[in-house]
Structure prediction request, 778 residues.
Amino acid sequence: MKKSARALAALLVAGLSLTAVTACSSSGSDSGSGAADGAPGAQALDQASGVTTVEFWHSMTGKNADVLNGLVSQFNAAHQGKIEVKAQFQGKYDELVTKYKAAVQQKGTPALVQVYDIGTRFMIDSQQTVPAQAFADKDGYSLDDLDANIRNYYSAGGKLVSMPFNSSMPLLYLNDDAFKEAGLDPAQAPKDLAGLGELAKKLTKKDADGKTVRYGFGAAIYGWFVEQLLAESGTMYCDNDNGRTSKAGKVVFDSDKGAEIVQWWADLVKGGYAANTGRNTDDAQAAFKAGTVAMHLESTGVLRGYKEAAKFEVGTAAFPKTSAADQGGPVIGGASLWISGPGHSDAEKRAAWEFEKFVTSPEQQAAWHTGTGYFPVNKKSLDDPKDKEWVAKYPQFQTAIDQLKATKPTPATAGCLLGVMPQARKGVETAIEQTIAGTKPAKQALADAAKEIQPAIESYNSSVG
Amino acid sequence: MPTAPHAAAPRGRTPSPRQRGRRWGEHGLAWAFLLPSLVVFALFIGYPLGRTLYLSAHANDLFGAPSKYVGLKHYTDLLSSADFADTLLTTALFTLLTVVPGVLGALVLVLLLENRIRGVRLLRSAFALPFAFSVASASVVFAVFYNPASGVLNGLLSQVGLGPIGWLTDSRYALVSVAATTVWMNLGYNVLVLSAGIGSIPTEIVEAARLDGASGLRLARSITVPMLGPNLFFLTVVSTVHSLQSFGQIHILTKGGPDSSTKTLVYSVYEKAFAYGSSDFGRASAQAVVLLLVVLACTAVQFGVLERKVHYA
Prediction:
């Protein structure tokens, strides 16, 4: 009797550990197919009675969230009594996708959802959305105002699948004051990895006791930067032309170029010239804002926030190339807006489309550009007087525009289209950590990461047929 | 807190004939009283357990819903995975690094607090204070301490000409740093339980020992610690289970990194199920079942081995 009571107690205690997982994985069975039906016409909204509510999931925080909420309330004010967009922050990009998957199972997807660049393949495969192209075709709405590079990124089979919204590229951020203090000219920013490494050594400052008070370089251990550097060098990240000619079957980031990039990074950290703040981008951003690193890699999307927070002159320069010979450019990152199909009324879909058109209009994109640093997806925004005035006043915002214009659309700069891209990115991050810790050489670490991701790629590909 | 698996089982008695006659009625009544908790048990423990077993034997579609039966494949995959072996090792290390210092540290504190010094009540409350902190807020505070550039720890180190150490970003230190945070968080509860235990030691025993000339270490070794046996045992079991299930501090401080050096079993379950858009509930569930078995095994060993040495007053 006593024994079984104990066993029961132990089982009870242990059983608690399981509740967490199961409680969150709901039991939906039908994953919903037969999406991608046509887009409804304008009459869907005209015929709708009352206010059509559009639930909108996004991942914007801080300054960027403020600007986004501003756009939403402007839109709602203009469509009072007809459409109401309800913006809901759903955590970081990764978390949002996880929640979206759960929502698909529970048949409760939001009408409009912001998904990051590397979630594009998954969103296409999910068959839960109506392509933006379908609405544009229905209305005869021209998409030609969209920037060609950006449009290229979010197109599949020549059709625009989602509406680009917040497009960004990584930039090289500079602490201009640190440059001047070291007797360097911030206008002469490093152009490639070797140059960056050289300057990092000069910009690293130690105090009398030999303690480092400022590192020459510092960036989050973020796989995105490796993706960018590979694109700069024209190297593929996954096979089948980055998954653009046909579905990618494996990652190929364990190339010599990949190893060179990771090794370069690890050497700077090991040499004491680069700060290692870990994977969390917030920590790396804090280090730059605090002035403890002189050069830093981040998205264009944080520029406005940096300008407001930093007590020094923030400079921007083109994202570095891996070597002077590189012909490529960075991948267009950021996120796009997807309209849900199954389970949503025609009026909802239509209202979501109206919102997409609104936020990508020249005027709103100019407000978005100047308010955040994301570059405008609408080419005409750059002609907007307010935008022109802003860029003239703060030339840092010009860097991203120049960089985008200089980038030719190629499979390398389009980036890898892979269903399990977030996991691949994580694998690269682990490889960087291993190389820094010295447990493996870069090439080996990347090869191991590639091997580890393989089963996930295969099971993903087999589950979408 | 999980319910205390306190072993206060009723002593066996030989029933008289009259009692035997009433037995059935009593049993029926007992079951009726137990029913509500049994329903809750079935709903919140039984069902999730069954569901986890079911999920662990299925592959997933794109959205994480179970798609096809794969039998024990997820389990055999785990057995042959070097990565999973590392995870188990990390889990074991983390448990050792949190339970041993957590329980022993609390014991030392409580014994020291037995000295009748001024302000002992204040100190006792102070040491119990970490219990009032949520995992999230404690982790955030420690993250600030551990910050490589502005953290107080590296500040102190640099005063004596050492460091800086990447407490959370260096794979050699990260696990210890997270464990230290956990020990601090658990300390409050442990101190509370042991203080209560000391309070319930009959004063005549202590006085008798004192009359015999015992004091200080001798008193602690021969009277206080043995009398605290049930409390220490309880703490060891509960801390072990707690530690095996730690998630919040790992998630906030390191997210399992760097280089998976703080990826415990629970964190690995989370990564498979929810992180990086993976939604691999099948493999996550298989790992969750392994976690269940590990917790079960630990608890069974503790009940089987440790409890024999516990003296119930």
Remarks:
- Strands of chain B lie at 58-60, 66-69.
- The first helix of chain B runs from residue 17 to 56.
